[in-house]
Amino acid sequence: MFASSSSSSSRCSSIPIMEVEEEEQIHGISELPDELLIRILIFLPVEEIARAKLVSKAWKNLSEFSFVPPLTFEQHRHCNGTISSFLDSIDSSLKLHYHRGLSLSRIRLCLDLDLIGSSRSQIDSWIDATLERKVEQLDLCFLSDSIINYYSLPARVFAAGTITILCLEGFRFEIRGNIDLPALRKFCLRHSRCDEQSVPKLISSCQLIQDLEISCCKPWQKIHVSELARTIRDLRLEECRLTICGDTNIDLPALRNLSLRNIRCDEEAIRKLISSCPLIQDLEICSCYGKQGLHVSGLVNLQRLTVVCCYALQIIEIDAPTLQYLDYRHGARRCDLVLTCCEFLRELILYDRFVTEDLLQNLLSGLPNLERLEINDTPLQRIEISHRQLKRLDLTLITVPILVKIDTPNLQSFTYDGHRMPFVSAISSLNTSSLQELGLCFFNYNVCSHFFALQLKEFFGKMRHQTDMKLHLHIRSKLELITPTKLRPILSPPVYNIKHLILTIYECRRHQYIIDRILWMCHPHILSISRGTNARFLKVIYKKFMNKEQHPKCCTACQVKCWRHYLEEVQIDCDESMSKIERTIAMSESSNIVIVMKFEVRFRLKWRPQLL
User: Fold this and answer.
1) What is the pTM of this model?
2) Do the beta carbons of residue 543 and residue 511 sit within 8 Å?
3) pLDDT of 547-572, one tens digit each?
4) In angstroms, rounded to a whole number, what is the distance separating the alpha carbons of residues 445 and 554?
């Protein structure tokens, strides 16, 4: 919802602001049943619940005891108050639960220990209060740049019989006493300092855990696979040492999702782990050391496989009849990729500098049901893609291939990132009968720019029969796209069927010309300036639309007029306020550094069917 400032209200009269009537919103909320209102409120922080009760009678009339919302305290979101007020809000909320005898199902507490200083003594009392209220889900994130400030949990936490979920980040993890967590089903430990005994001790003591994550703890934790609970369904390990002792049997019959990131182990350990868990559905192996070969077979339920940056690998053999998604990213050295019995694969993501034309053709011929193909970082000189089932194709080319030929009659989404000349070759063969979304990002614009503009415009013309086309255009060159003045005598009328044009402008010397040149080629229904765009471009396009004359007098001698003659009405649609847009524009004008947009702005454009 937007509101134009008083200083610019007269100038913005040509841009109607889209507003939502507050009365209609409140009226709709008041008709919701109490059960649904409670479900909405339970996901809000305490402060937001208090505000919600002030604006809605329906929420205000709800009994305070009809629901028990989770408590969420995140210091980085408490930007309008002091540290002491933030700490006081935690105290008051916990005391309120205590005095009213309310149970506490879930609490999330995120603190910067370097900022709260001496107030750290309060943390023990908060944890005691949560344990007294029989907390079930305890999520604690304590940030600190110094190891000295790391916080150690009280021993009584490890004897809390009601805790089902325990998530810890930024701790000194040391367990001195016994562990008695009979209800624990999920345990996550991230970015913490640990001794050698505590993590294995907790794992071996909690044999009903279903979800286990040990991530980026120092020193690297040694995980003995034989000590893992048989009930584990989700296992995520990062920066750990994985060990399997001798002929020890692995018994993880419930394991469904396995993620190994930056793991140090021998090749036999991972092979034995994978082969001993036949019901795995999602397998991720990233940056694992010590593996020269990866053999995936015997997994009758495997649906997703991700292999990323395992640089020692020399061969990957995959035999998975149920596999539907494969993400393979390598490139450091040549690695053979062998797929057998993967005819049901639907999505293939391929990042490999050493991929060959023969490998690509063999992969496509053996994947009759492939619907998505993403090829990135490849130096192939010839790219020929022929596939009748393919619906999405993403190409990122680091070199200039001699030939790019695409024969995909059912293609719905096409993204191209690379040099312009291979794209010209690609669009000449591309069947656009089913195309609904197109993304373009070019490395350079200084080669045959005038002719390229005509070819790109011709490509847009091939899509005139489409009624719902979305176009993403990324411009990141300091040079200019086209020179429309020289092309006016030979340009055909602009394309109207682009429903949504999304622009990302990284760096250009002459922002004022970019939108003119794009709108010479097409007249989109919605023009979006995406996040990450230089805010100076937003300033340029905003002022162009705002200052457009009702009856422009330019282009009088040209048969094909510029966009000003066709544009009838502009509306702004944004998740942010109009004042924030104007502040961003003002910052781009006054600052010598590049201001990057952190939100998206959408312009809804209404075009005239006939010229003035």
Assistant:
1) 0.78
2) no
3) 887 777 777 777 777 888 888 889 88
4) 27
